[in-house]
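so my prof wants the structure for this chain in the tokens format not the other one, which i didnt know existed until like an hour ago. anyway here's the sequence
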Amino acid sequence: MSETLTIDGHDRGRRLKRESSADQVAAHLRRLIMSGELTKGAHIRQDDIAAELGVSRIPVREAIIALDREGWLRFESNRGAYVAGIDVDDIRDHYELRGLVFGLLARRLTEVATDDDVKALSSLHQAMRKASDTATFALANDRFIGKMLKIADSPRLTAALLVVPAIIHGGFFEFVPSGRKVQEDGLGAFLKALKRRSADAADEALITMLRRQGAEVESAFTAAGLVTSAP
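here's what i got, hopefully its the right format
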């Protein structure tokens, strides 16, 4: 998904335009956390964030609520909002669950995808491989996943992915650069299975891809000092 306004997480003096949303404030805070500028236990002062970004407290408050749900922050009535660590088991469980859903999606596509659908997905995968920068790769990846969901035409599978949303919303391949090869290889293996109409192989390809992405996220979070328990 593209954004109407990007936020440079390395330039804390940059102010957001008036059309900034809670999503953009949340993206800014995630970048500060992943970069180590906001460390585990650091308090999030809503007034300071609002003043820094040139927005009201409303989108900041909404961003904090969203990040609390995602596990990046914790909000306690007597303590306020602060940066929380993420349990390693939570990361692993998260990607196992997403792998199961994507595996079901893969199986559905082996049943319903037409030859033209497979060609379209192959073209999008080629665009991912040829992408010269992270943003272009991420956009091609979003289109690939979107095309998969459109082909499957399954409201329940789409809803299941919403129930288990990505841990890192936006900028995933910026935060986890090694995830690009994992995604590229995993979707490539899925396409090979799809062309053979092998439901088992397609399922396994995406389960394996998500499991490997989870391992890369675990490593990235550990490096950033965000993991709260040892494996």
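also thought this was worth mentioning. The first strand starts at residue 43 and ends at 44.
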